[in-house]
Amino acid sequence: MKAIKFSVLMSVYKKEKPDYLAACLESLVNQTLLPDEMLILCDGPLTEELEEVLHTYKDKYSDLVNIVPFSENRGLGYTLADGVELAKYDLIARMDTDDIAVSNRFAKQVDYMSQHPEVDILGSNIFEFSDSVDHVTASRIVPETHDAIYQFAKRRNPFNHMTVMYRREAVLAAGNYQPLKGYEDYYLWVRMLANDAQAANLPDKLVYARADEEMYKRRGGWSYFKSGMAAYNKIYQVGLANPVDYIVRVTGQFIFNLTPIKLRTFLYKKVLRKDDEVRTGEG
């Protein structure tokens, strides 16, 4: 018997790949603990191929899959804010539609949240992979305790957003998701922490996250640096960080965004990530 009922919250838009979406959904319907709702928000019109994937799963899992279409592409912040309001259950798990959940992800997280009612937001570490989950290239390791998460959040995102499970009440108390392109999740986390939400990360790796060479290319250039700093300026205004944190963030972002692609890739993998010898496994 489940301790807590929960929803999975995802947003999909037209530029996503149908095969990635299908692999994601397959990982969710094969969990050792199934969600009680898979809430999939369509951020604007989708391609026929994406629609076909969604309706294949809707037809097969009609009691589980809840598809909500929006006529316009409004952006992730607005879409996820609606999702928090629309979810049937107070416990909500985030998931990206191009990543793959380890089969016991929800079982581990629901068990932890059941045993720790004081925790409002719970994440985990991730595998990063390219091509297939058999080709793990690195891991992103995040701090586990509330105090460590709070300190880490002053300079960097303390959660792998696609692993997070949170309580709706704490999200709404912090102002819900708000538009901040590329930083919607991080912006929510710092507002939750500033609002005294309690946080934790499991040491397990519970999601395989896609991280190909294109990702490293996208995270470079003057335009990316400027947009990143504009977003961090807003995050900084929440009040968690001090001027030293700000300087460290600006310096780090400048170095990582404006170095040549080969050096940037090396820095991401060797400094911001950890090489991982584990190629398969349940985390």
From TrEMBL:
Occurrences of domain Glycosyltransferase 2-like (ranges): 7-165
Keywords: Glycosyltransferase, Transferase
Cited Pfam families: Glycos_transf_2 (PF00535)
Domain of life (superkingdom): Bacteria
Coiled-coil features, chain-numbered ranges: none
EC number: 2.4.-.-
Keyword Coiled coil annotated: no
GO molecular function (one): glycosyltransferase activity
InterPro entries in the cross-refs: Glyco_trans_2-like, Glycosyltransf_2, Nucleotide-diphossugar_trans
Similarity section: Belongs to the glycosyltransferase 2 family.
Descriptive protein name: Glycosyltransferase
Naturally occurring in which organism (per UniProt): Aerococcus kribbianus
Lineage: Bacteria, Bacillati, Bacillota, Bacilli, Lactobacillales
